[in-house]
Amino acid sequence: METDFNILKGNLTAYQISEAIGISIEEATDLLEHRITIESLDAESQEKLKQLEKVLFD
């Protein structure tokens, strides 16, 4: 699933992701560097990430 997200391919910065979905910059950096998976985020953050992906890339 994670490879389907354009957001995680470097289109946004960790700061932008953290502000948009309400996670820490550290978590966003870990997502971008593939140290954690989307599934490791809470359900609300996962949903916000999916919505952001849809708005930006659909």
What does this protein look like?
The protein is mainly alpha-helical and 58 residues long. It has one domain (2-52). It contains three helices and no strands. α1 crosses α2 (25-32).
Could you give a short description of this structure?
This protein has 3 helices and no strands. By secondary structure, it is an all-alpha fold. α1 crosses α2.
Structural classification: mainly alpha
Poorly predicted ranges: none
**Which strand-content bin applies to the residues?**
under 5%
Number of helices: 3
Task: State the helical fraction.
Answer: 40-55%
Structural Rg: 10 Å
The major β-sheet equals: none
Number of domains: 1
Mean pLDDT over all positions: 91
Shape descriptor = globular
Beta strands, count: 0
Distance between the termini: 16 Å
How do the helices and strands follow one another from N- to C-terminus?
HHH
SSE topology sketch:
Layout: H1 14-21, H2 25-32, H3 43-57
Helix pairs in contact: 1-2
Keywords:
mainly alpha
